[in-house]
Structure formats: C-alpha cells, structure tokens
Amino acid sequence: MRMMDRDPDGRTRPHTPDSPTEIPQVERTLQNPEPDLLHRCHFISTYSPQSPRPKSPWSRPDPYESPEDQDREYVGFATLPNQIFRKSVRKGFSFTLMVAGESGLGKSTLVNSLFLTDVYKDRTLLNAEERISKTVEITKHTIGFEEKGVKLKLTIVDTPGFGDAVNNTESWKPVVDFINCQFEQYFRDESGLDRKNIQDNRVHCCLYFISPYGHGPVDVEFMRALHKKVNLLPVLGKADCLTPLELSQKKKKIREEIERFGINIYQFPGCDSDEDDQELKDSVPFAVVASNILVQIKGRRVRGRAYPWGVVEVENPAHSDFLKLRNMLVRTHMQDLKDVMQETHYENYRSECIRNMTRLVVTEKKRLSLLM
Ligand SMILES: Nc1nc2c(ncn2[C@@H]2O[C@H](COP(=O)(O)OP(=O)(O)OP(=O)(O)O)[C@@H](O)[C@H]2O)c(=O)[nH]1
Ligand SMILES: [Mg+2]
C-alpha cells in the first residue's frame, strides 16, 4: 500500500486517501421520482426555487495540500477524518424521524414534502389528494436514498393525531410506548451475542406539530411526556393560515410557554457559526407549510398550495421555515441529532434499566438470605 505522496519537487508528504472528487456534494437526484401531481396555475412569484448548493463540510479534503505545509514533515494523522469519512460512506447512514401532534395539522403531508418523495406510495388510493389519508395507527415507512454515492436509509414514524376523541388525556401514551419499545429492543440486542446485525429503530428526532389556531394543555402534556426520551422539535403546522405578525406573536408565545413549563426541546449545538445557530433558535417553532401538489408558476414547477389569491410555495423562505427545517434536519444537524439520542436519551434509558435490574438482584439476594 502506498503510504506517502510525492510532491512535484520530490518532497514526500503523508498520503491523503481521498481525492477531492470523491467528496460528495449533496445534490438531489431522486431514486423515487416525483409523483406527477401537476396542477396548472399561473401566479406571479419573484422567488427563485434554486436553494443554495449544499456545502460540504469537507471543503479541504487534503489536509496537507496548502503551500506552507510542503516544507514541513508530518506523521500523517490529519488524514484520520478522511478515513472515518470513507468508512461511513461505505456503510451508509440511517435516520429515523417521527411526527406527532394534533390531528389534521399536515404531519403526513410534511414528511412527504421534506424528502421530495412519496412516503406513502404503497397505498392504493384513487388520486393525489387522497394519497395521504388520516393516520389511524403508528406506521413505519423505510425508504432508501442515494445522493452522490452517499446512501441514506430513512425511516418515517407517522403517528395518529390526537384531538378527535372527547378525552385526549394520555394521548401521548402510545407514542411514548413506541419510543420505549425501540430502546428496549436495542438494549436487548446490544446485550446479546449477535451484535453485528442489530436492527436499530430508535427515534432520532420527533417533530411535534402545534396548531396555528391555538395550542393548549394537551400540547404541553404531550411534549413533557416526550422531552426526556427523544430530540423534540416543535413545529407550527399549516403556517399559511397566519399573517406574518400573527406568526411572530405565536412563535414568541410558544417559546415562552416551552420555557415556562420546563420543556427540554432539542438544543442546537452550533453549526457553521453562532449566527446560524442563533437564527435557528429564533425560528423555533419552525413554521411549516406542506403540500403534495406541484404547481406551475411562470414555467416553474414548485411544491405549493394554490389559493384563489395566490400560491404558497413550500420551499420559499419568505413563505415558510420549511427549507430551514429541512436543511437543519438533513444538512447540518442530522449527525448531532443521532449523537444526542445515543449519548443522552438512550444512555438515560440504559442506566435506568441497569439500576432497576441491580435493584431486583439485590432484593432477590436479600429474600434468599432471609430464607436460609
Ligand atoms: N393550509 C394547509 N393545509 C395543509 C398543510 N399541510 C397539509 N394540509 C392539508 O391538511 C389536511 C390534513 O393533512 P395530513 O397530512 O393528513 O394531516 P395529519 O396531521 O397527518 O393528520 P392525521 O393523520 O389525522 O393526524 C390535508 O387536506 C392536507 O392537504 C399546510 O401546510 N397548510
Ligand atoms: Mg397523518
């Protein structure tokens, strides 16, 4: 194996395993093509649909390429991140996203919009509008994506919305049970003999939908039941129902209540700069608009909601925080969400399990010693 690269002037420097061309620039090419749901409408829009090209965190893949490095001698461990990168790409990535909240707030529609695919395409329903129907039980859909050679296995956990029953207390219970069940399964598997083929279905993030028309004690109760078990991100569904002023007032009120009721939502650890981080924090709860319909505006096809007075474009930052949410989930914080799940939520579950098991063993020992 060649370990050293030779510069044109003959000096050697540590071999960098990846060439820049191998580094994926995340640019979407769909494996699952868009369902052709074209609705023809013509409205004026100044918005350009091109979202900025995703930035690679590996913008300098060769850590020894700068001219000032050429005169120095190195051992070569600055290539370690590249080695991890190569291994991760080979293995592929997985992510499990859950949606929860009141019924009819657009949870199922949003997950379809987020990943530019039809999560529910296996359903045999009549037309595009009916493709997503009311969610009546917790469902899991797994989709495989590939972008620029990077594989992602995405699992969507859709939960039935609450609010239809007369009594909505403990509506969070099935959702919490589901999260616990995944932890339990993982705990059992990782304590077993065959740890190579563990199916990891633990939930990395839960988008909790809050109604634009008003929120109440059930939302607080629901979020408090979830916040110590999962990375909780509140979102304001159907944000097109609010004016910009109403929206900012509503967001402020929700942030205050989250603080007042001691709800621990997912904390952004900081990404490219603290400014980005602050912007994300100020956007909570993300105000989202979702649609499964493609609308034609001045020759462009965009995901949107067509009203008699105009079109709400899902991916237009002036219309909703949809892009901010998706960028955060996919481009900037996916790995952190996974780390926090593993290091905080799962670790809490695991230590609680071990404490309970130890307690049981001690009690049993005491009981046996009394019998003797
Ligand atoms: N105005 C508006 N309507 C939306 C939006 N997103 C979805 N809808 C509509 O709201 C209705 C309910 O959407 P769903 O995605 O089924 O809602 P849900 O939260 O999954 O509902 P449950 O499965 O009953 O919990 C559908 O008619 C959608 O077209 C949105 O952002 N704005
Ligand atoms: Mg649904």
UniProtKB/TrEMBL annotation:
Transmembrane segments: none annotated. Keywords: Cell cycle, Cell division, Cytoplasm, GTP-binding, Nucleotide-binding. The keyword Nucleotide-binding applies. One of its GO terms (biological process) is cell division. One of its GO terms (cellular component) is cytoplasm. Residues 1-16 have a biased composition (Basic and acidic residues). It comes from the Eukaryota. Pfam families: Septin. Residues 1-26, 45-72 are annotated as: Disordered. One of its GO terms (molecular function) is GTP binding. It is found in: Cytoplasm. Gene3D superfamilies: P-loop containing nucleotide triphosphate hydrolases. Residues 91-356 form the Septin-type G domain. PANTHER family: SEPTIN. Belongs to the TRAFAC class TrmE-Era-EngA-EngB-Septin-like GTPase superfamily. Septin GTPase family. This is Septin. It comes from Bagarius yarrelli.
